[in-house]
Amino acid sequence: MSEEPTDRTAALPTIGLDGPIDPATDGVSFHTRKWVKPEDLNANGTLFGGSLLRWIDEQAAIYAIIQLGNHRSVTKLISEINFVSSAEQGDMIEMGLKATHFGRTSLTMRAEVRNMITRQVILTIEKIVFVSLGPDGKPVPHGYTDITYHRDRLPVQNRS
Ligand SMILES: CC(C)(COP(=O)(O)OP(=O)(O)OC[C@H]1O[C@@H](n2cnc3c(N)ncnc32)[C@H](O)[C@@H]1OP(=O)(O)O)[C@@H](O)C(=O)NCCC(=O)NCCS
């Protein structure tokens, strides 16, 4: 006996995922997508929070390196995380980041993760702080005050 498939998207609020993200209106200036696979699930069969946090931290690191022009950019703080909905195997999720404050040695970002299938927000993180370090592992001024939308600050250390 086959079960009727349930429509998880029915009666859910739309959060504007139908078109391309516009940084001016979306509040996000950097985004990436992931496909939820079996190895990303918890015992409940839904997306494991630890997998999601690993992806967010990695994306935040890439974004911080692009913004601060320093590959020695490390996670200093992640504020409260409220998982408000989840994802299932086969769902596609979208992670968005935006720089909200350039400090002297730090960069503060805001993160939002959305389920592209159910159109629900999975979580938001108001503050992710990265700090730019020097070769001695101590905070070093990055000298930037605003967001770049280009690749003009990419560090050159890893170029052969
Ligand atoms: C990053 C690290 C060098 C910072 O050391 P620190 O003694 O806090 O340095 P400072 O006090 O000079 O602060 C550096 C910057 O972080 C900010 N900062 C420090 N503590 C903070 C906090 N709790 N919340 C938000 N920002 C904070 C400071 O305001 C400062 O930013 P600014 O220069 O833009 O004003 C040190 O904490 C460290 O090595 N942490 C481990 C980092 C790491 O390995 N992360 C990977 C996960 S394990």
Short overview:
With 160 residues, the chain is of the alpha+beta class.
Annotate the secondary structure layout.
Layout: H1 23-26, E1 30-35, H2 49-68, E2 73-78, E3 92-102, E4 106-115, E5 121-132
Bound molecules: coenzyme A.
Kindly describe this structure.
There is one protein chain. With 160 residues, the chain is an alpha+beta fold. It has a domain at 26-132: Roll (Thiol Ester Dehydrase, Chain A), CATH 3.10.129. Helices cover 15% and strands 28% of the residues. The protein contains two helices and five strands; from the N terminus they run H-E-H-E-E-E-E. The chain has helices at residues 23-26, 49-68, and strands spanning 30-35, 73-78, 92-102, 106-115, 121-132. Strands 1-3-4-5-2 form a five-stranded antiparallel β-sheet, with helices on one face. Strand 4 and strand 5 (121-132) form a beta hairpin. The longest helix is centred in the middle third of the chain and has 20 residues, at 49-68. Coenzyme A binds at residues 74-77, 103-106, 129, 131, 133, 139.
